Amino acid sequence: MVKIGNFFFHYRNFMFPVFYLALFLPSPPILDNYIAAVVIGGIIALAGQSVRWTTIGLVYIIRGGKNRQVYAEKLVTDGIFAHCRNPMYVGNVLMLLGTGILSNSLYFLLIGVPFFVFIYQAIIRAEENFLHNKFGKEFEAYKASTGRWIPRFNGLATTLSSMTFQWKRVVLKEYNTSYIWLMGCTLLVMKHVYTYEPAATFDAALPVFLGVIFLFTASYVGIKVVKKRKKLTSA
User: Fold this and answer.
1) Range(s) of the domain holding residue 107
2) Residue 24 domain-assigned?
3) I want to staple 234 with a disulfide (CB 3.0 to 4.6 A). Which of 104, 124, 168, 187 is the partner?
4) How many domains does the chain have?
5) Does 102 reside within a domain?
6) What confidence tens digit (pLDDT) does each residue in 138-193 have?
7) Cut 0.85: pTM above it
8) What CATH code is carried by the domain that includes residue 72?
């Protein structure tokens, strides 16, 4: 499993196009009412993104490893990491599940979501192997007190209230992921309206969709420019 995890860690950035394509493939629906699928899926996906925002806002952990290999300078155990060893992956799975439901794709829910959960589980095993080898007893103690996937809610309110939320860091570090999933959700809703509603309804809604896409894209480009010019910095 560790070897599989190292492989997927190295190539995980190439999985996103596969994820996007799978969402739009023809599939039997999960729910007869696509609006219900959009609402339920949207709430779950937003919950996942919120987990990521909160995790990054409290304590930032360097992602991506080193040279696309698993790597860590220090063992991060505070913030949300004090309650769950892998909050970012928990957020990712919730986003995958929510977007899959929003897409109303039964195939993605039954095949895509379990596949990505397997990938994340393998990556986690590879990361745990690295952390065990580098930090030894320190990591084992952390591992014994904190769940891999299931968060410990005891003391969470204290953690949230006792730490400073770095919103600038969230904007700078998470704008790309936020843009990708927001655009994906927008395109999926467009697809639903085009498929299930009369042509006149889609034509009337099209300017709204285009406006939303423009807003998201303009925000993305704006943040990217500000980041490059170092007009907005974070701790």
Assistant:
1) 2-163
2) yes
3) 168
4) 1
5) yes
6) 999 999 999 999 999 999 999 999 999 999 999 999 999 999 999 999 999 999 99
7) yes
8) 1.20.120
